[in-house]
Design a protein that fits this description.
This protein has 122 residues and is α+β, with helices and mostly antiparallel strands. Helix 1 crosses helix 3. The protein contains 4 helices and 4 strands, in the order H-H-E-E-H-H-E-E. The strands form 2 sheets. A two-stranded antiparallel ribbon has the order 1-2. The protein has a two-stranded antiparallel ribbon with strand order 3-4.
């Protein structure tokens, strides 16, 4: 998926094509479970607005979940002992299903380090 100046240049290059071809040409396509193609119009238009310097809300949605609530940056241990990190947080870090992390336990803290990276990276 193209972003910023690359996105603007590609839109200009494609010129007068259909909206579907524009979205497809800029890489805003995903594959559904049944193997068919899905065009991600919303993500495309959000990236296009951002590239043109238009901000929707405060910070372009940073720190907000899908419902528009401000993220608290607090997690609570659930009754079954699990610690849940919500989708809004994983989306901010561009994490995908299957991404692996090494768990480092410290005094009253838990650090998640992406598998294969050094401990000093953030």
């Amino acid at each position: 998926m193209l972003k910023a100046s690359d996105l603007l240049a590609k839109v200009k290059e494609l010129g007068d094509v259909s909206k579907s071809e524009l979205v497809r040409g800029c890489g805003y396509v995903s594959t559904k479970k049944d193997g068919t193609e899905r065009l991600n119009f919303t993500a495309f238009y959000e990236a296009l607005l951002e590239a043109k310097g238009v901000s929707l809300g405060d910070g372009g949605g940073q720190g907000r979940g899908k419902g528009g609530r401000k993220l608290s940056y607090v997690a609570t241990v659930q009754g079954n002992g699990n610690l849940l990190v919500g989708k809004a947080y994983t989306a901010m870090l561009d994490l995908a299903p299957g991404d692996e992390f090494e768990i480092k336990l410290g005094r009253k803290q838990i650090r998640l380090i992406p598998a294969g990276s050094s401990d000093e990276e953030e």
